[in-house]
Please model this.
Amino acid sequence: MKQYKKTRAVDDISFAIAKGSITGLLGGNGAGKTTTIAMIMGLVLPTSGRVAVLGHPMPAEASSVLGRMNFESPYVDMPMRLTVRQNLTVFGRLYAVEDLRARIDELAHDLDLVEFLDRANGKLSAGQKTRVALAKALINRPELLLLDEPTASLDPDTADWVREHLETYRRTNAATILLASHNMLEVERLCDRVIILKRGRIEEDDSPARIMARYSRDTLEEVFLDVARGRAQNDALRAPVSQEALSQEVMP
Amino acid sequence: MSELALHQGLSLNRIGAMILRYWYLLRSSWPRLLELMYWPVLQVITWGFLQTYIAQNANFFLRAGGTLIGAVILWDILFRGQLGFSISFLEEMWARNLGNLMMSPLKPIEFLLALMAMSLIRLAIGVIPMALLALVFFQFNFFGLGLPLIAFFCNLIFTSWAVGIFVSGLVLRQGLGAESIVWTLMFALMPLACVYYPVQVLPHWLQIVSWSLPPTYVFEGMRSLLIDHTFRADLMVQAFAINVVLLVASFAAFLALLKSARRHGSLLAGGE
Model:
């Protein structure tokens, strides 16, 4: 639980994320997604309760896990005056990445950064900055990747390409990804499991297919609107999960 | 596990990475480099001319060995040392990069050590031209103070770091709304540190406060060296002892403020 003065940002939530899975964190503005991710990262201390990452309590044993995880968030930026290569060099050294030059070249190739590696970060477009931030998030080949709106400000083509990259990264590295997003199609495509937050509490926690089936909806966006507008509390709208719906469930 | 445990196992590589980060920044911005030299040069010119005027018209004590210009340069070491530390820290706030650093394996103590190293680099860029200017224009050889200069320098830089650490903790906790403290706090110490006049000038009760500040010992020591040609090692030892206490206290305050920032979510906000 996290209480800011009179506001309860996160209220009595509890979940564990399976290794190698992609979990989506959904919710409207102020639902508690960022606070939840910040507590997992150790940037915010819970008022009560505990957070453990890769088996280590946070932030007490942060030094044991921070090198094995990474994140990308619109709430932080990379230094604007440094070039992309300089930024990645600094963070690569902070994360003690071996053969850093080769790793930067690899990421530049994978994320299509080659042509502006030596350009100042401040001179990049919003989409390019997002890709650089993603490169920083992947620099240490994290076992746990926390992403807050990873495809925001990307054109549909690049966003699709980033999603594909994330899927490949998860598959090839057996990485665990926690993803906060407002893009329901993205969540449907990427996530094995979805946690929907509302006013700091967990409203739903299941696979996308099961949740859609429970609400008798065809898309997560419709479910999201049901939850946001309080229609989820009306049991009449809920339908039992059908076998057909279950067969569509995304398997890890 | 205690907060202190987070600081075990220092990594020179991570400290080096942070120094590299600030070096890239300095190198890429000529206004930043110019600013490092601009104020020290302006200071030494202004006070140098004042000293020249006083020396031509005043008594022995004011003529003695460039006490004014020496005080200006030593004050600048104290002030610029703290600014060099704090501005590097503020660069992270301005760049909204603090979250990236706090989420990385960089430990708070490594971060602070990198800031200390940067304060030395920035100080060198600012103070060396200043001292050379004093030599060329006013025939005051700052480096001629000899070995005592090392004691003066160390004590001043330790105080500047202690203030820098504390102020950075405040900015971490309060956000950029507390930025003005970075620029002003050291000036609050100026009258008490007796930069340009002896401690005896102060009322007795204020002298007690003054003697609790390490820079007071340094400026008294400098006057003793320039006027009486005596190096007061006792003053330097006392200043060093107080500095140790200040550094430990400021580090403890930084950790407490960091914990408070985590509790209040200030690391995410970062702004005003």
Observations:
- The interface with chain B takes residues 2, 4, 9, 34-35, 38, 41-45, 47, 59-63, 66-67, 70-71, 73, 75-83, 86, 89-91, 93-96, 120, 136 of chain A (CB under 8 Å).
